[in-house]
Design brief:
Largest sheet of chain C: 5 strands, mixed
Number of helices of chain C: 4
Structural class of chain B: mainly alpha
Shape of chain B: globular
Chains: A alpha/beta (219), B mainly alpha (429), C alpha/beta (171)
Number of strands of chain B: 8
Shape of chain C: elongated
Order of helices and strands of chain B: HHHEEEHHHHHEEHHHHHHHHEEEHHHH
Structural class of chain C: alpha/beta
Oligomer: heterotrimer
């Protein structure tokens, strides 16, 4: 690879220097080229070293990092049932832009989605199908019940509807009829916080539902 | 189908998998030696299930399609996946409480549902709607028509592959929802129409904002047409695909833009004007061939006409009460409650029990964005209706889908479902 | 709408199929004999009422005969509507379907889904219907939901003040 002025980079000249992190892990003070410019020539120790590290290095557990990544990139399933779907569209629309938060990739296939937003009323004919869709989603997966009809029975407390909690685990219920885009966004961001704080994957650990798998573990 | 109980041996599923015949269909048919029709001898008919969860169905519509290659030979729609028992719930509630229930039926044209129901109850209870209320109703109905057509346009053209129109349509719809929020406090399902008029007068500033909207909307629609009208892809997908003639459509009970696209200018706003529609001058866009392109063009032209109606209504908005002054039906104004005992009693009775409607049956039909929306109400003298039935246009229009798509490609079927504009909330109620 | 006189004339022409005529709130309703429904509808079609706007059911509980099927017809040329009503008892809720073509001329294809809905919700059996299945409820559902004696159903509302009770009941 050449620079624009025609010089060839001589990679052999780039010494593999010990990074500052490795140095400190080794227990040594910062030295040599890894020193900050204003301290060149002296080793820093103690509180100054602490401050130097805090300003420059982020340490975390792998779980937390993965949870952070997961929570900021939900792929919602493109799934609208009734009126709440219209407000779901508006949430994806220009004013209340769901893409600001990274959730604009509505997937058509449940295999590629990790968030199902139940937008609308769940009738008894539709419930087994939604359950099948939810089962087809891969772990980790989350569910938001949008609107009053799927969270509780909503306006229609009658023979034809099923509240979503009866057949699938829901993480966040968003009330409203239909919830404003701001309300839905609040619900999604609550879910994001939930995922960031509690990085357990899989709803079975969260809901204490071990043993409900169709093929028992170990068989 | 895994084996249960850990029994050894090959499961049925595995056996089926191992025995899949991969030879060409013609050979298979020859080997089987069945008698098949012309069609079946070339290719087998494949039954494909679309939905109810499918990104290209507008709502939870399930289609069983029999395909020969890519050509649709038979189509059967299966509905009922969002059946909410609205009509049954409505029997349990007093008349003014039925309005929010019924609004959620055809969830894109909520004002129309409320209008049909209020019209039927007003016929039964012989309640007069004051002129100002009628004009306000017209304004909100036409705004709702534009909003419905914008979502239709966005989602239909999304099915054809153009994603930007969807977002533009949503941007315009935000303006309309802002107006709804100004007048009634809610963006959707506003409960704004009540029996006898509207629930509240429009606030100051509404007229100004509405005028800004009427200036902006035709320009934006011009922009959409500039993108879509002569677009090669739109023309190839929509021109000449799945036409159906007006006579066939009438026998199937189809009304609305579908019928108008086929050439029959039937529009209830002109034929049997309700709620002061005869005060306004507007045209009815009518198509010639009845193919998908005509259906698209009719609806887009209707947006312009709706804007004209709104402007005329706003210019001619009469002063006066916004709801009937019949205290047996409509709540008295709040300031009267402090001074008049009768007003207090009326208020109490109306809120706790609701108004009573004498025995009778009425059917009120209006022109919704999808066709004739009718509401049948049977009153039995009590404060709750004995039967509410909404004759939803999408439910009846769906029957036309099968004749439309016979003999055309799957891609045309997708475009036709989009142009049919079914709203499954209305189909399933 | 045919006014009261128009209704009388129509009633006379249709003869003994008409059991009753009602003119209420400017609307004409004909109560007819269930066996004559196809004949009456085709005669009205010849008069100009060529558009069947709606077929729906009503449960007139507690008045017998309990089930009603109502046909709303529209004359597009004269902008007229007329309602044809049929009453059926619950123990024998059968009536000819108007969907298929038959000896009274062309059928009314628009009644296809609508009659299925009346069957689904009220239990009225339409003889001769090309596809007599439930349309809105699941295929194997038992009962006809919109009859008046069918319970509305639904979930009980759990108030937090009763929380102690339902936590107990769960154990």
């Amino acid at each position: 690879m050449t620079r624009s002025n025609g010089d060839v980079i001589d990679y052999s000249s780039l010494a593999v220097r010990e990074s500052s992190a490795e140095q400190m892990l080794r227990g040594g003070a910062l030295s040599g080229a890894n020193q900050p410019a204003h301290l060149k020539g002296t080793d820093i120790e103690g509180a100054e070293l602490e401050r130097h590290v805090h300003e420059r290095i982020l340490t975390t557990t792998l779980d937390k990092a993965v949870a952070w990544a997961r929570s900021n990139s939900f792929f919602p399933l493109a799934f609208g049932l009734a009126c709440c779907a219209m407000e779901q569209f508006q949430t994806a629309g220009p004013r209340m832009d769901i893409a600001r938060f990274g959730y604009e990739a509505f997937r058509a296939s449940p295999r590629q989605a990790d968030l199902i937003i139940l937008a609308g009323r769940v009738s008894i004919k539709m419930a087994p199908i939604i359950r099948r869709l939810y089962d087809q989603m891969l772990e980790p997966k989350w569910a938001i019940s949008m609107g009053a009809c799927c969270s509780s029975m909503g306006v229609f407390n009658n023979y034809a509807l099923v509240p979503a909690d009866k057949f699938m685990p829901i993480d966040v219920h968003v009330p409203g009829c239909p919830p404003r885009p701001e309300a839905l966004m609040h619900g999604v961001l609550k879910l994001r916080k939930l995922v960031q704080d509690d990085p357990d994957a899989g709803w079975r650990e969260r809901y204490g539902a071990a043993g409900t798998e169709e093929a028992p573990a170990g068989a | 189908m895994s084996t249960t109980g850990g029994a050894p041996g090959v499961s049925e599923y595995r056996r089926g998998e191992q025995n899949i015949d991969l030879s060409p269909p013609a050979e298979q048919i020859a080997r089987r030696g069945d008698e098949r029709s012309e069609i079946g001898q070339r290719e087998e008919l494949l039954t494909l299930n679309f939905g109810p969860h499918h990104p290209a169905t507008h709502g939870v519509l399930r289609l069983l399609v029999r395909l020969e290659g890519e050509v649709v030979r038979d189509l059967r729609p299966i509905i009922g996946y969002v059946h909410t028992g609205i009509e049954k719930t409505a029997e349990d509630k007093s008349y003014w409480k039925v309005i929010p229930v019924v609004e959620r039926m055809d969830y894109l044209s909520y004002y129309f549902n409320a209008m049909a129901f209020c019209g039927a109850v007003e016929t039964l209870a012989q309640v007069d709607v004051p002129a100002r209320a009628q004009y306000l109703r017209v304004i909100h109905l036409e705004l709702n028509r534009i909003a419905s057509h914008l979502i239709w346009l966005g989602t239909s053209i999304l099915d054809l592959g153009a994603t930007s129109i969807f977002l533009y349509g949503l941007r315009e719809r935000e303006l309309i929802l802002d107006l709804f929020e100004m007048s009634s406090g809610q963006r959707m399902h506003t409960r704004y129409f009540q029996v006898g008029g509207v629930i509240e007068d429009i606030p100051p500033g509404f007229a100004k904002k509405l005028r800004e909207f009427t200036k902006v909307m035709p320009k934006r629609t011009d922009e959409y047409r500039a993108i879509l009208d002569s677009n090669e892809i739109v023309l190839q997908r929509l021109r000449g695909t799945c036409p159906l003639d007006a006579e066939r459509l009438l026998s199937l009970g189809v009304t609305g833009p579908l019928l108008r696209a086929a050439g029959n200018p039937w529009d209830l706003r002109k034929a049997a004007p309700y709620s002061s529609y005869d005060d306004f001058e507007f045209k009815i866009p009518v198509g010639t061939v009845g193919d998908n392109y005509d259906r698209y063009a009719c609806r887009v032209a209707e947006i312009y006409e709706s804007v004209k109606i709104i402007e005329q209504a706003l210019d001619g908005l009469p002063e006066g009460p916004f709801i009937t002054s019949d205290r047996k039906v409509a709540l008295p104004p709040r300031h009267e409650l402090a001074t008049s005992m009768e007003a207090l009693i009326h208020h109490f009775k109306l809120v706790t029990e609701g108004f009573r409607v004498p025995d009778g049956e009425a059917y009120c039909a209006i022109e919704s964005p999808r066709g004739e929306l009718g509401c049948f109400v049977r009153a039995d003298g009590s404060s709750k209706p004995a039967r509410v039935h909404m004759r939803d246009p999408s439910f009846v229009n769906l029957q036309a889908l099968s004749p439309m798509v016979e003999g055309s490609y799957i891609a045309d079927m997708i475009a036709t479902v989009a142009m049919l504009d079914p709203i499954l909330g209305g189909v399933d109620r | 709408m045919p006014d009261a006189t128009g209704l009388e004339l129509i009633g006379k022409e249709l003869g003994k199929a008409v059991l009753d005529k009602t003119f209420f709130r400017e609307r004409a309703t004909l109560d007819i004999d269930p066996t004559a429904v196809r004949a009456v509808l085709s005669q009205l079609r010849e008069k100009g009422f060529a558009f069947l706007a709606s077929v729906h059911g009503v449960d007139y509980y507690p008045h017998e005969p309990r089930l009603g099927v109502i046909y709303e017809l529209l004359d597009m040329r004269r902008v007229d509507r007329i309602t044809v009503r049929v009453r059926l008892p619950t123990d024998a809720p059968e009536i000819d379907s108007v969907t298929p073509d038959g000896d009274y001329g062309a059928g009314w294809p628009t009644a296809n889904h609508q009659e299925r809905e009346v069957y689904d919700m009220f239990g009225v059996v339409f003889r001769g219907h090309p596809d007599p299945r439930r349309i809105l409820m699941p295929e194997d559902y038992e009962g006809h939901p919109q009859r008046r004696d069918f319970p509305v159903g639904g979930e009980p509302v759990l108030f937090t003040r009763d929380e102690a009770q339902w936590l107990e009941a769960r154990e």
